[in-house]
Amino acid sequence: MARTPRFVPLGRFAMTRRITAADDSPRSTHPRSTHPRATHPRDAHHASRSIHTDDGFSIVELVIAMFLVAILAMAVLPLLVQGTRASASNTSLVAATTFAGERLAFFRDQFPSDILTTTCTAVQAHRATGIPDPARSGLSADILVSECPADLPGTVTVTARVYESADPTAVLATVPTRIVVSSP
């Protein structure tokens, strides 16, 4: 068999080799690449370029990741803001309800459910407006007492109305209770 040079095109490279009698094995028909990562002739031209491009992130991947994070942040941020506002509102309502309950507890202590000793006039004497919260929360309370009932013994409704001291028209909590009265 005559020895003739053979050209093997590999992308933009061309390798030259001579075919010999020892080249009868299937493996020997492929040109050898000197690059350690090339295992097949079609990989020889990719191997030298892939050493530098396989490592790390490309700038396009980073921009896409930043874009996805921005979209997620825009979706989650309104929920966080809404949760914070609801929490602040709930805190104010709890403080107002607690303050109103404390004011009514005072009435229950002053006028126990004793039908013989509680008079309507004594209960109405405890009406008050602008009672400041002792906890200094910026809340104030008004104590409202209904009119005396026509039929005695009966009940008088006492209502604690709590609002912010800065804006008395914005009522935060209104808590009623009933006091038993025996005489006018």
Q: Can you tell me about this structure?
A:
- This protein is α+β, with helices and mostly antiparallel strands and 184 residues long.
- It folds into two domains: 5-46, no CATH class; 60-181, no CATH class.
- Helix content is 38%, strand content 27%.
- The chain has three helices and six strands; from the N terminus they run ββαααββββ.
- A four-stranded antiparallel β-sheet has the order 3-4-5-6. Strands 1-2 form a two-stranded antiparallel ribbon.
- Strand 4 (139-145) and strand 5 form a beta hairpin.
- The model has no long low-confidence stretch (mean pLDDT 77).
List the helices and strands and how they pair.
Elements: E1 5-10, E2 13-18, H1 41-53, H2 59-110, H3 120-124, E3 128-132, E4 139-145, E5 154-164, E6 167-181
Antiparallel strand pairs: 1-2, 3-4, 4-5, 5-6
| Helical/strand content category | alpha+beta
N- and C-termini, Cα separation: 135 Å
Number of strands: 6
If strands are numbered along the chain, what order do they take across the biggest sheet? 3-4-5-6
**Rg on CA atoms, Å:** 45 Å
Question: Main attributes?
Answer:
rod-shaped; 2 domains; 4-stranded antiparallel sheet; 27% strand
Write a concise synopsis of the structure shown.
This protein has 184 residues and is of the alpha+beta class. It has 3 helices and 6 strands.
